[in-house]
């Protein structure tokens, strides 16, 4: 019997060899594809890293720089070849930061999470710049083999911070050295900040003492509601930056006046108020004294005008009673004497006729003087009739045409107001005849919605702004004072070559 042979046949060996070859080929192809995919992935990663405007870096466990993107190369002044030749990250950290950097790398490699850290980096040329860096471990087979991270150039931010710091220091110096008091308050009216000038104004021992109180602790009680409304509406809501005056209390209880202007500011998202103010007590006292003096002068002026009108009325009455009656009697005596002369006494007749004419002209002069002093028409028939009479008399005396627009025929006002308006018109027409070189005047008197308007307009040379405001224009000053007495307004305007207009409005 033939013994069996257990070794494979040549055909089987050949088939097996071919199968192994195919498997190896497939495996090689797969490895090649994986290497290509890995290479493409790395290229995408490095391309992305090179496109970022921050430093992207990789280092191994010993701190050797494995990769530095394009921005990092530009910022440090290094080249890709220098990185490939081998550089250590600690070469580019200032000496005082190296120990902290080593410690942080060790902690990160041990999977400890560390927030952004700030370092001072060194360029190739030895210059330094601040960076903020964050990194995370790179793992291989669950073991940390290095770090990958990102660093941001902090140069511009540090510059801005320094500028802000200097600005804050300047602001603080200005805040403390400002002669005016400056405070910052929150919306609950609590003092947040104050300078030394505030403590001096309110007589406090220190700024710290001020900050323990509320702003209303320094405001006079009767002023507190108004102050609250101004701060709430004008400053916090509208931010108007208007100047207001308040009565305040010093620590001693002494009352003072302050002038304050506030504006809304924001500090870390919180709305606050910045108020600058100064002590105006001395100024206010001077203003009050001046106001009192002006009030006394106005009262004296009104009294003098009243006395003057009474004297005018009295003088006019005396002229009427004495001179008027005497002249009338003289006129009658001349007429009686003339009737008794013979016709052959022509010389005496002519003389008596001259005397009679002189008596007539004197009577007319007396009537004119009496009317100028106090026209009876004003007392008997009112302002409208008096204006008509004055316009007719002015036109006859000066040959300047007078146009009238009187829409209130039955208008009757307070006697003193009628007298003042009559004297204003009289003064205005006197100015026209003396200074305007006009040939026409328009007088208008209207009343509408409880407001009386008197307007006198001429077509003369036109008053100048200097003449309007001159302290020597006593006629215009008198007009203003007469109208101010009744709370009225006076508007005077002139146009060169076109005339002057005086407008008066009074609430009746």
Structure characterization notes:
There is one protein chain. Helices cover 52% and strands 23% of the residues. The protein contains 15 helices and 15 strands. Strands 2-1-5-4-3 form a five-stranded antiparallel beta sheet. A five-stranded antiparallel beta sheet has the order 7-6-10-9-8, sandwiched between helices. A five-stranded mixed beta sheet has the order 11-12-13-15-14, with helices on one face.
Element layout with pairings:
Elements lengths: L9 H42 L3 E6 L4 E4 L1 H7 L3 H6 L9 H15 L7 E6 L5 E13 L2 E11 L1 H23 L3 E5 L5 E4 L1 H7 L4 H5 L12 H14 L5 E7 L5 E13 L2 E10 L1 H59 L6 H28 L2 H6 L1 H16 L2 E6 L8 H22 L3 E9 L2 E8 L6 H5 L4 H11 L4 E7 L3 E9 L1
Parallel strand pairs: 11-12
Antiparallel strand pairs: 1-2, 1-5, 3-4, 4-5, 6-7, 6-10, 8-9, 9-10, 12-13, 13-15, 14-15
Helix pairs in contact: 9-10, 12-13, 13-15
Summarize the structure.
The protein has 508 residues and is an alpha+beta fold. 52% of the residues lie in helices and 23% in strands.
Radius of gyration: 52 Å
What sequence of helices (H) and strands (E) makes up the elements? Answer: HEEHHHEEEHEEHHHEEEHHHHEHEEHHEE
* Averaged pLDDT: 82
Strand count, sense and barrel status of the largest sheet are: 5 strands, antiparallel
What are the segments in which pLDDT stays under 50 over at least 5 consecutive residues?
A: none
Q: Please list the strands of the largest sheet in the order they lie side by side.
A: 2-1-5-4-3
Instruction: Identify the CATH homologous superfamily of the largest domain.
Output: Histidine kinase-like ATPase, C-terminal domain
User: What CATH architecture of the largest domain do you see?
Assistant: 2-Layer Sandwich
Helix content: 40-55%
User: Structural class of the helices, strands and pairings?
Assistant: alpha+beta
The helix count comes to 15
CATH topology of the largest domain: Heat Shock Protein 90
In total, how many domains does the architecture comprise?
Answer: 4
Molecular shape: elongated
**End-to-end Cα distance:** 157 Å
CATH class of the largest domain: Alpha Beta
Beta-strand content bin: 15-25%
According to DSSP, the number of beta strands is 15
